[in-house]
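Look over both lines:
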Amino acid sequence: MKLVGEVTIDKVEKVKSGKVREMFALNDMLLIVTTDRISAFDFILPSLIPYKGQVLNRISNFWFKYLENITKNHILETEFEKFPAVFKKHSEMLKGRSVLVKRASIFPMECVVRGYITGSGWEEYKKSGSIGDIKLPKGLNLCDRLPEPVFTPTTKADVGHDMLLTLQKAKKIFGTEIVENLKNKSIQLYAKAAEYALEKGIIIADTKFEFGQAGDEIILVDEVLTPDSSRFWPLEDYMPGIQQKSYDKQYVRDYLLSTDWDRNSIPPQLPNDIIKKTSERYIAAYEKLTGDAFKN
């Protein structure tokens, strides 16, 4: 097994390096490579998580296909064997963790949908009874299911924190028609995915979507409903009023919070047992969602 933390491809321009994904330009396409990096508290951690990139890539591809009747997406090719020849000698690094996608003009807004109240949404609710400009019922407990999913967009920051946007502010920035379109698409995508996942024993507490404009179409881009972009809770352990067990990287956040790391300096290496258990959680999420055994 080859752990992939950084990617370079001969004669192909790297156009972006995110916290987890690397992006390369080839003609009118982009190659997106999902590495084994993991981030927390806006830092890329020095440790790599075995199989993480492959798992995230496969989960996204599963959801892109499952949800394509709601909205078109950016996927052009998922099978490495069908990639252009320029990528073939990098098969050990790219196979299983890469996709070819359409270029799109990305809306700089994270389309966050919450079905349960937790995280920053819970903190804001405790202070104001609202998230953004959405008033919520009184008396909610931590991790309660909301009466219906709510759309709480944020800014999209390349570095640092994304910041909550009210719907009104988002409409002023992007236009009412576009924001209403993205809101409706996001809630439809979340509702369909959450219903499916529940049947598989996973609660999708919240998630974020990203969209782009390709020609005259708005399409779904980036990653979709992965443990990096969503909170996944085991249904069998769900109990409102307390923090939930999770399949996502909350396990790593919790570990880091238990250390003396100040969250302002270079993060520490993760212990081997934390790395192993984190990898196992990602794989478990993939297997429960898809019903397929994970094979490297």
